[in-house]
Design a protein that fits this description.
By secondary structure, the protein is an alpha/beta fold. It is built from 16 helices and 14 strands.
Length: 419
């Protein structure tokens, strides 16, 4: 995929942290060679996390996230810092930017040679096992010998962490910083395929893509696009059809279909058409494995039949979109849930980044496939639900369960579930 078409959730996420006026935005601009972040001498110019898509070779497509200052003040400042900390849930690499000219002898000598504010964020980064780089910025404001002395002292106390001295004014140290970024980048070749590891060269996979009032005009939705691309990348053959044409399509391809993947909302109709000897799953279930935790999501669906009157259920989506009259998240799933449970439930919805911190009021969370979310963010949501003792399931698994075809829809993943 190109820079402009790579989904945000599939980019390497690089978050920039530091105090106000440490030069975070200047560092982003210097690395990318573009003025993509606002730079000002006024403290607190960046008031909310700001994302910008870029490409750094050989890492590939990246997302730089400029965050508010760690020393932001007041009630509003505290909320900004809280938002900045939430960015860590999807961060692949963190850059901790420190104004080297502001470091005192006391800062350099105590602890790890790093001021308290920066140590606080580093402790969280280390707890989350996120690779990070210490960036000593504004080196042009002190002499070279002093800058190197400070760096050496910090390296001595942090021997496994890259420490880079840079000046965004003089454009020094930037190539070394890019090299450090490359060294800390995740190995994308080790990432789990969406579907490519389930097929072999020349295998035919039939994709059932309903074109109805909920479908975006003139294009396919992101999970459908990504599954097609993954099949092509693995030299398999994607045949795209709709429900009314599915039966004839399967007859024409008789004996040569490796698998059928459907939109979850059409699970019932498609299951009745596809012969039992052909594996069947959905786009949403593919993403449950690709970005989530398939075993935990499958386990979570058992809670559907344990719901009681008055229980709260959260229906969560990773993106925001215009709701249709028969919207999947706000209309169809609540209807199916009420029909299945027969209980008087309290159903709440959330979308985008507004995933509640406190999940304890809910008896169940039903989440979308998370195609727009970064893998770390989706897994973090599942982790938070598990930690707070709240069952979580995704759309595709939930729909296949209430349609009575869960076992069939996850049969193709039996090795994953066994592990």
């Amino acid at each position: 995929m190109s820079l402009n078409t790579t989904p945000q959730g599939d980019r390497v996420q690089i978050a920039i942290y530091g105090r106000r006026n440490a030069g975070k935005s200047s560092v982003i601009n210097a690395i990318t060679g573009q003025d993509i972040a606002i730079v000002s001498d006024v403290k607190g110019t960046t008031t909310d996390p700001v994302s910008k898509a870029m490409e750094i070779l050989p890492i590939g497509p990246c997302m730089f996230i400029d965050t508010p200052g760690l020393d932001d003040e007041g009630e509003l400042g505290a909320k900004r810092v809280e938002k900045a900390m939430q960015v860590l849930n999807k961060t692949d690499i963190a850059l901790i930017v420190i104004d080297i000219s502001s470091l005192t002898d006391e800062d350099i000598e105590k602890g790890r040679g790093i001021p308290d504010k920066e140590l606080d964020i580093i402790s969280v980064v280390e707890e989350k096992k996120i690779p990070y780089i210490i960036v000593l910025n504004k080196a042009d404001l002190i002499d070279d010998i002093k800058a190197e002395t400070i760096r050496n002292k910090i390296v001595e106390k942090n021997p496994t962490i890259p420490v880079n001295v840079v000046s965004t004014t003089d454009k020094t140290g930037l190539e070394e910083l890019k090299d450090a970024l490359i060294s800390q980048a995740p190995d994308t070749d080790l990432k789990l395929h969406i579907i490519g590891d389930l097929v072999e060269k020349n295998d035919i996979v039939v994709l059932v893509v309903p074109v109805d009032s909920a479908a975006p005009k003139g294009r396919l939705i992101m999970p459908q696009q990504q599954v097609i691309r993954d099949l092509l990348d693995n030299q398999a053959v994607a045949v795209v059809t709709q429900v009314p044409e599915l039966s004839d399509t399967l007859k024409k391809l008789e004996g040569s279909v490796r698998m059928v993947v459907t939109d979850s909302q059409a699970f019932g109709e498609v299951s009745a058409i596809v012969p039992e000897n052909i594996p069947l799953t959905s786009f949403s279930i593919l993403f449950a494995r690709h970005k989530g935790n398939l075993a935990k999501l499958v386990d979570g669906v058992k809670a559907v039949d344990k719901l009681k009157d008055g229980d709260k259920v959260l229906i969560a989506e990773g993106c925001t979109h215009r709701r249709q009259c028969d919207d999947i998240g706000t209309v169809k799933i609540p209807r199916w849930l009420n029909e299945r449970s027969g209980k008087k439930l309290q159903i709440e919805t959330c979308s985008g980044t507004q995933f509640p911190a406190d999940l304890s009021p809910y008896a169940l969370i039903i989440h979308c496939g998370g195609c727009t979310l970064h893998e770390k963010e989706m897994k973090h949501r599942i982790y938070r639900a598990e930690k707070q003792g709240v069952p979580i399931v995704n759309y595709g698994i939930f729909i296949s369960y209430i349609k009575g075809i869960l076992e069939r829809s996850i049969e193709v993943f039996k090795e994953d579930l066994k592990d």
